[in-house]
Amino acid sequence: MTLLDSLRALADPTRLRIMRLLASMELAVGELAQVLGQSQPRVSRHVKILCDAGLAERRREGGWVFLRTAIGETSKGALAVALARTLAAAEEADAAFARQCAEDRQHLEAIRTARQSHAVDYFARHAAEWDSLRSLHIADGPVETALAAMLDELAPATLGRLLDVGTGTGRMAEVFAARASHVTAFDRSPDMLRLARTRLQHLPADQVALVQGDFAQLPFLAASFDTVLFHQVLHYALAPEAVLAEAARVTAPGGRIAIVDFAAHDREELRIEHAHARLGFSDAQIGELLADAGFALSAERALAGHELIVKLWTGLRRDDSISRIEPRLAARKP
């Protein structure tokens, strides 16, 4: 990002409006077109200019392309932070620009409402399926309370950069967002990410990211996160050792991992009805998996449910985890 390129990209009323909208929340190109009242091809041209200048970023999620701001208080680089502050100051100082931005945000509420309606419809279609699974174990509240207490023991001040693997509807990302400097909600399902986007859309745009991908091949650089969370997702892994190896790779030395899952059980129907690859985990299994991945087990706790026991495990990443993981991964390659 250079100052000249940035100023050239911002030298257009529509692009200024887009940047102020992206400061509020991540938006699909079609959603931007709806708010701006312009054709999608025209908005796409403006988006390309902003992305080429490094002011915005594209992210594909299934058949959708989402845009998010690349500048803000959490951005790396003084220029990016200064540009974000300048745009905010311009809205305060320029009455006409402020009125346009206010009108755009009113239209933005239609987007928020549409997302909420989609979420309601989705839950209505899948309510019976989720209720049948939820009836087997404990409610979410006690789990969240217990997990918060366990994380407090490891990180009493802040969770730092938080990665919520298999975020689903974004519930855990929302619960712990206030204790994190930045939250990345990660999931393989575009449908789930749309639900998570609805839940998290009240958070500052530059403090949350929603990313689609495979938890066995995380699209992040090494040591990108301080805390990694797996909430009721590891039992979907055909190779949990590979998933936790990836978690260790992206966790900074001394960082934390938290796993919430079922204790080992014999409910075979969950494989067919809910696509569970693993029928829970024993303490010994999790201890071995974490040790092999490069984590040291810190604590465990059991919460008895109706028929299934929910287990919570936390661990710390050892400084030598990379040297332990790489030879094992190399050995598995054909």
Q: Under the CATH scheme, which architecture of the largest domain would be assigned?
A: 3-Layer(aba) Sandwich
The biggest beta sheet is recorded as:
7 strands, mixed
How far apart lie the N and C ends? 41 Å
Could you say which overall geometry the principal axes of the C-alpha atoms support?
globular
DSSP helix fraction: 40-55%
How do the strands line up in the largest sheet? 6-5-4-7-8-10-9
What share of the residues does DSSP label as strand, in percent?
15-25%
Count of spatially separate domains: 2
What is the tally of helical segments? 13
Number of strands: 10
Q: Let me know the average pLDDT.
A: 87
Radius of gyration: 22 Å
Order of helices and strands: HHEHHEEHHHEHEHEEHEHHEEH
Question: Which runs of at least 5 residues are low in confidence (pLDDT < 50)?
Answer: 322-334
CATH topology of the largest domain: Rossmann fold
How would you classify the helix and strand content by structural class? alpha/beta
- The CATH superfamily of the largest domain is identified as Vaccinia Virus protein VP39
CATH class bucket of the largest domain: Alpha Beta
Keywords:
334 residues; Rossmann fold; 2 domains; disordered C terminus
Structure summary:
This protein is an alpha/beta fold and 334 residues long. It is 50% helix and 21% strand. The chain has two domains: 3-110, Orthogonal Bundle (Arc Repressor Mutant, subunit A); 135-332, Rossmann fold, CATH 3.40.50.150.
